Automatic annotation (TrEMBL):
The keyword Glycoprotein does not apply. PROSITE patterns: ABC_TRANSPORTER_1 (PS00211), ABC_TRANSPORTER_2 (PS50893). Belongs to the ABC transporter superfamily. Gene3D superfamilies: P-loop containing nucleotide triphosphate hydrolases. It is a peripheral membrane protein. Signal peptide: none annotated. It holds the Pfam family ABC_tran. This is Amino acid ABC transporter ATP-binding protein. SMART domains: AAA. InterPro entries: AAA+_ATPase (IPR003593), ABC_ATPase_HisP-typ (IPR030679), ABC_transporter-like_ATP-bd (IPR003439), ABC_transporter-like_CS (IPR017871), MetN_ABC_transporter-like (IPR050086), P-loop_NTPase (IPR027417). It is found in: Cell membrane. Residues 5-249 form the ABC transporter domain.
């Protein structure tokens, strides 16, 4: 079976400093993979490379068997044209730390913009779907609300609905709760957890270890630009692997994790 996402021997450096050093990672259809790792491990860079917001220096990234950002001609890879890249990116939903909603558009219009302009949906169809998505993220009453009138957690939930409106095959979350006040983290994690159960393929970079252990099919630990551990949560909890032990000894979010767990079970 072709992996939904296949990262093969990816390398990336900035100004001669290696940030990704031979990263290989496969994610199957419907899997939820949570990526953990200390600050600077290369997690965000990997997500940016998967979405081809950054070109890789070596290696390949494929989504459903199709190379992202490149095409193969003979033995060589050539960067694809912008229009083709935009078409590829449509299949990859991205939710980042900062929500980047359009401030002059309502929640509804933020969500319908892509489907209308890029997918060519009519206003009625796009709005009906956007309303369903707003309800799905618990914001059914906020269609006409502008981002400045929403809390950070609510804005992030609109950003998730906006990504889903493009019907992505793969969802990437890059620290979706890191910019939020602690009391707003739970509402966003609840939405992501519900999504995880819908069967959509997801890669979630997070510092919320407790959450990762709860929702992930696999926990991937990165350190110094490589994947140093990759296993189901059950194994992660009990492993004596030195990388995991070293990482967990620096995890300070245990109180936050407890409150997250409480928020999740509300
Ligand atoms: N555009 C860039 N130019 C130069 N260096 C960069 C750039 N982007 C990232 N880096 C460097 O690459 C390293 C990895 O950064 P990255 O953001 O991928 O780590 P991370 O694991 O996501 O960390 P965090 O958990 O703090 O977000 C860091 O040392 C960072 O300073």
């Amino acid at each position: 079976m072709t992996a939904m996402l296949s990262v093969q021997h990816v390398k990336k450096a900035y100004g001669g400093v290696s940030v990704l050093r031979d990263v290989t990672l496969d994610v199957d259809q419907g899997q939820v993979v949570c990526v953990l790792g200390s600050s600077g491990a290369g997690k965000s860079t990997l997500m940016r490379c998967v979405a081809h917001l950054e070109p890789v220096d070596a290696g390949t990234i494929s989504v459903e068997g199709q190379l992202v950002g490149y095409e193969r001609r003979g033995n060589h890879l050539h960067e694809i044209r912008e229009a083709e890249l935009c078409r590829q990116r449509r299949g990859i939903g991205m939710v980042f730390q900062h929500f980047n909603l359009f401030g002059h558009l309502t929640a509804l219009d933020n969500i319908t913009l892509g489907p209308r302009k890029v997918l060519g949906l009519g206003r009625g169809e796009a709005e009906a779907e956007a309303r369903d998505l707003l309800a799905q993220v618990g914001l059914g009453d906020h269609a006409a609300t502008y981002p400045r009138q929403l809390s950070g957690g609510q804005q992030q939930r609109v950003a998730i609905a906006r990504a889903l409106a493009m019907h992505p095959r793969l969802m990437l979350f890059d620290e979706p709760t890191s910019a939020l006040d602690p009391q707003l983290v739970g509402e966003v994690l609840r939405v992501i957890r519900a999504l995880a159960h819908t069967g959509i393929t997801m890669v979630v970079v997070t510092h919320e270890v407790h959450f990762a252990l709860e929702v992930a099919d696999r926990i991937v630990l990165m350190a110094d630009g490589t994947v140093v551990y990759d296993a189901p949560p059950s194994q992660f909890r009990s492993t004596t692997d030195e990388h995991v032990t070293a990482f967990m000894s620096h995890v300070t979010d245990v109180p936050a994790a407890v409150s997250t767990a409480e928020a999740l079970t509300e």
